[in-house]
Amino acid sequence: MKPVSALVLLLGIFSWTVAQEGVPEGMIRYSTGYEFPEGIYANFVMVREARPIPAARVVTDVDLFDGEFYEKITSADEIVIYDDNGVKKEFKTSNIWGYGRNGALYINVGSAFHRISMVGSISHFVASVTTYNPNYYDPYRYNPYYSNSYYHGNYNSPQSTYSSTDLKQYLLDFETGEVMEYDNESVEVMLMKDPELADEYLALKGRKQSQMKFVFIRRYNEKHPLYFPAR
């Protein structure tokens, strides 16, 4: 073997070794090009193992190739699937963690499924959450039985259920599966696993800390990459 060829070979082996250093065996490092397997993720363990229930096992009349397949099956109260042994199992839709579609991951929060826009050891997503207030006082609601009564406006005030839908930002801890609201306190808690970053973040004051939340999340994800099983 010529000296130049031997040198090239050694450099190639060295580069491959460096690239693999720190990567757990049988795992690959998450990158923006990673595609989550498509299917139903009944729990967070399935997400970490990238092992969902295939859509073909879902018992439904919805066409498997329907572009809104997952939206339609998750609109029902229950999802029925065949397990590995061909036995039917029922899951309450409200208890399902989420699903994978077109390589993206969707999480169940606030009785709806939302795409996780930034995936990492600390992930970030936006969700529309509807809240209900059953004791909402409605002064304009007409009640024919009490409108002329002495008790109207006292013991029998008209009430109705009020709902409001708001966009909220959340964080997902990909180590524990815990979901927290996107605020200074939550970022502080998640950064505690890296004392150096946490101390730097806590040294920031008030408004500056709020402005730098996303920057510190990205820095944490760079230092603590996420890994999934190689397929």
pLDDT under 50 segments (min length 5)?
A: 3-20, 144-155
Tell me the distance between the termini: 36 Å
H and E order: HEEHEHEEEEEEEEHHHHE
Structural class per helix/strand content? alpha+beta
Strands, count: 12
User: How many helical stretches?
Assistant: 7
Kindly summarize this structure in a few lines.
The protein is an alpha+beta fold.
Topology:
Layout: H1 3-20, E1 27-29, E2 39-41, H2 44-48, E3 58-59, H3 69-73, E4 78-82, E5 88-92, E6 98-101, E7 104-109, E8 112-115, E9 122-137, E10 159-173, E11 179-181, H4 184-191, H5 195-202, H6 206-211, H7 213-223, E12 227-229
Antiparallel strand pairs: 1-12, 2-6, 3-4, 4-5, 6-7, 7-8, 9-10, 10-11
Description:
- It is globular and about 55 Å long.
- It contains seven helices and twelve strands.
- The protein has helices at residues 3-20, 44-48, 69-73, 184-191, 195-202, 206-211, 213-223; strands spanning 27-29, 39-41, 58-59, 78-82, 88-92, 98-101, 104-109, 112-115, 122-137, 159-173, 179-181, 227-229.
- A hairpin with a 2-residue loop joins strand 6 (98-101) and strand 7.
- With 231 residues, the protein is of the alpha+beta class.
- A four-stranded antiparallel sheet has the order 2-6-7-8.
- The longest helix has 18 residues, at 3-20.
